[in-house]
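In practice, a research group might receive sequence data for several interacting partners and want a quick structural hypothesis before committing to experiments. The following worked case mirrors that situation: the sequences arrive first, and a predicted assembly follows.
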Amino acid sequence: MTVKVLNQGLLTSIQDLGRYGSQKYGVIVSGAMDKYSLRVANLLVGNKENEGALEITLLGTSLQFEKDMLIAITGGDLLASIDGEKAPTWRPVLVRKGSVLQFKSPLKGCRAYVAFAGGIAVPEVMGSKSTYLRAGIGGFKGRALQKEDVLEFGEMNRLSTSLFHQLNKRNNDFTWAVNYDALINLQQTQTIRVIRGTEFDRFDEKSKRTLFNEPYTLTTQADRMGYRMEGPPLSLATEFELLSEGVTHGTIQVPPNGQPIILMADRQTTGGYPKIGQVITADLPSIGQLQPTANIHFKEISHKEAERELLKKEQIINEIKIGVRFKGLYL
Amino acid sequence: MTHCFPEAIIKPLGDSALIVQLGEGISPSIHQKVQALSMLLNTYPFDGFVESVPAFNNITIHYDPVLVLNHLANNQPSLTSFQIVCSNVNELIQHIDDSQKLEARLVEIPVLYGGEYGPDLDDVASYHNISPEEVIRIHTQSECLVYMLGFAPGFPFMGGMDERIATPRRETPRLSITPGSVGIAGKQTGVYPLETPGGWQIIGRTPLDLFRPDLSPPTLLQAGDKIKFVQISPEEYHTYKEKKR
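A structural hypothesis for the assembly, expressed as tokens:
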């Protein structure tokens, strides 16, 4: 029994926390653009947090359920509805057989996540269910979902089964939802925290100040691979040639035109542009929720603070995990 | 024997990765150090190690700061994850010279040169005022070294091509280059694993798959491999293709 894709929407793909361990072969990491939302969605249905889930971009996606299923919707608010009624988000939801889940348009943020209890039954490729669109591997047949595709699911574990039965008994009434405010920011004007990049000191004094004082706008060339930004141009103090070397999620690189690019989930494994900054890991999920024309203010923080922010958010995730377990098994 | 590497510099690449710089420029001797550290990391991974990505003269180490700290003894609460990883990496760096030199694999890459498979062969030849046959002869005589993979899965960044056939990129890049295409860009030669746009001068095509996600490792070439290009005929090219089916 399954879920059928009635409409694929703009871009819907299966993602997990990414394909690690093969970057030395040039194989990109991929994975969710907003990892906190993906992890919470999985936790809410009793899955492992790195299980594959659907990443839904902006609008148009519509799914029909062919059996009763336990799901969770997190991430951006894309006006999700179940049979025309506003769908509950950031909590476990029981969707009835025959129901249609639809994402209409973005109210807040850019990407929603739908996790299914038991996980989506697709094979792992190189240790991950993430879709690597360009190479055509992973996810659902190596591609984005299309109309008429049919998704199958894995077996529910003890926690998922318990959550399922509770919701069934209470007719889907669940008084608890995750407050995501401390985890991610869905606003389209954001202050993003940045550590200096490996070539920060190679930029001229003006550019070093500009990066942290002037706003930058997301252009329409913003996708899962990277965000091209527009703003005051940044320039090197003296030209130099950088050999290709490792880059990572959130690397802010500056090509010769001076307009910074933030590397995102589908970035290449290596790059040769100077790196002026690096978005802190704790803020990556928030920028995964930006749409073209969004405004970013970069704010410099220390490496130590960046680690502290990451640990703080990890603590929140941990609390959610314990909370779901408690609700699922003891209530 | 412990040998200190005064030239090794560790730079943070954000809060979840760092770059270990082992020298400047491109040379086989620095490459040896990169390979040695890469092997040491994979043999003795520290707690929280995710993966490492070798480049020409440095290596990027990805780690999970949360896992690094989770493994930390309670009596060192003031250390950051970065400090712990640095001390682990510094420890390994001391053993770069002790580690055994890896025997480089020699990989032969069959190439069908010219014609529709290598549309820029004639341009490369006339750029250097030599015959296309001479370009092929020089290209197949070079022994190249794969310094790193990047850009696309299985794409080798190679050094060692004979500079007599070094040719600038095309003025207008092609929108789509067929997988397997063998090209020249400046002093570099390389093979395209996936269909991508690109500005390299395409002189031939190999029937081999550079990226093969079902196998382990998923790429034909790896950093440290030595490469020789071997000229094949159209018949041989098609035989290779047939065999794959």
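Before designing any experiment, note the following. The first helix of chain B runs from residue 28 to 43. Chain B has a mean pLDDT of 91.
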